[in-house]
Model the fold of this input.
Amino acid sequence: KASYSRLGRATTTARRAYRDWELAEGSIPMPPHGIDPSWMVDESRQPETVSVWKDAHQYIEAVGWSYRRDNWQTQPNHVELWSEKATILGSIRPVAQKWGITTRVCHGYGSCGQEMDVGHLFEDIGSDKEITVLYAGDHDPSGVQMEEDIHRRVEQASGIKFTMLRLAIHPEDIRKFNLPPQRIKEKDSRAAGFKRQFGADAPTVELDALPVDELRNRIEKAVLGLVDHELWNRQIRVQKVELNC
Done:
């Protein structure tokens, strides 16, 4: 708790130092400990705003720029990206937006409401497409088990079998990227199963420790392997025609 408080004070000081330098417009040297505030995102305290427009012309222009065709509508696969936690949303959002993929945060073990909502969606989709969920989670007793749990529960809710592909974190990532290992939490009721699967002294690692570029590359590679590029490019051509009409 004390370390967390120190971290909070340090980031606040660094953010303010950068802001002072920014306002000074270069008249003072860049502080060595400054942090660009745009690098920090609080996903839990985002404002809710109402869309308003100067006039109808401005609205029409905005609608034209925001139109984006659903390139997945003719694809043989339905792809989603699920994360155990919201802390990596800022890291994975650029790839998800690029490909128009739905992102879901499980917040640990999924809720009954969430599994039923996804179940109904997959039930409607499953008769026409193959479903693949790209999953990212911690490498620890709970992180491994909750992936299996939510997969099973959504399949039960939908009556549809689908593929869940774990992109991170894998045991081999710890050594490959020199990730900071932690001990198995003995109080975790799933610790025994984790030890049987990975070893009594197996290290655990938080999802956030994996380098951002590596996680994005894994998502990109997985999506590329599931896309029918001929159908995808056809949708892009259709959108260009629509916007030029």
About this structure: Strands lie at 77-83, 102-105, 130-136, 163-168. DSSP finds nine helices and four strands in the chain.
